[in-house]
Backbone:
């Protein structure tokens, strides 16, 4: 039976006397995927930052001893003329062998051209498409043998087809490496098929359960305070 890799108990964060998140409780086992959903300003990014130990909090966060955690932020804006190449970006974390870099790029589904990755690695970051840059960020996080990967809106700026590719990538990596994934997402339709649990957050924890249990019209209406349109054919949700 997979061991527990994270336990969160009564987690709260305050800024200037106001709660950003309050009384959040959940646990994850090795290899599980958790999506955090909720309206803007609900505290989703704050929760990730608390899990990373980047901000003060009350309550208890218990990570399994010795695990390695990676983080991909919501948005990393890069100007078109930013001088850093993809290769230089990947090497910022320390000297990386060509084999290690190519393995990470292959894992995130970036194609080889002319039997190599020079077509990508020699480009400036600002010259990459949104999908290429997002995969580069994921590849950068994967190097070093991670146990847990945290994503904040991993498909921001990517079209619907690209969203599904990214989520399928998560599932493939998770299945092959037993990677534990925590992601913040607004893509209710897509996450239904790619996560084990969904945590609904609107400052307080509204729900926690399996997608088929909680991605429901009435439950989502309670979370968002807006009309959620549910089409019975498939899992099609619209936040109006």
Residues:
């Amino acid at each position: 039976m997979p061991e527990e890799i994270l336990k969160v108990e009564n987690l709260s964060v305050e800024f200037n006397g106001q709660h950003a998140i309050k009384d959040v409780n959940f646990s994850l086992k090795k290899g599980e995927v958790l999506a955090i959903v909720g309206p803007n300003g609900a505290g989703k990014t704050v929760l990730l930052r608390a899990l990373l130990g980047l901000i003060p909090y009350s309550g208890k966060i218990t990570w399994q001893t010795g695990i390695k955690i990676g983080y991909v932020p919501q948005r990393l804006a890069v100007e078109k003329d930013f001088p850093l190449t993809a290769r230089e970006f990947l090497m910022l974390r320390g000297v990386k062998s060509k084999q290690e870099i190519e393995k990470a790029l292959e894992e995130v589904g970036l194609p080889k051209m002319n039997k190599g990755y020079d077509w990508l690695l020699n480009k400036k970051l600002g010259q990459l498409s949104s999908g290429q840059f997002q995969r580069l960020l994921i590849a950068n996080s994967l190097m070093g043998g991670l146990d847990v990967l945290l994503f904040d809106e991993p498909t921001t700026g990517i079209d619907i087809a690209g969203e599904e590719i990214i989520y399928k990538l998560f599932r493939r990596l998770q299945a092959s490496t037993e990677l534990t994934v925590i992601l913040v997402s607004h893509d209710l339709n897509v996450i239904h098929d790619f996560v084990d649990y969904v945590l609904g957050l609107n400052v307080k924890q509204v729900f926690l359960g399996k997608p088929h249990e909680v991605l429901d019209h009435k439950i989502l209406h309670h979370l968002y305070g807006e009309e959620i349109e549910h089409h019975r054919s498939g899992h099609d949700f619209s936040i109006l």
Summary: The longest helix spans residues 160-177. The radius of gyration is 18 Å. DSSP finds nine helices and eleven strands in the chain.
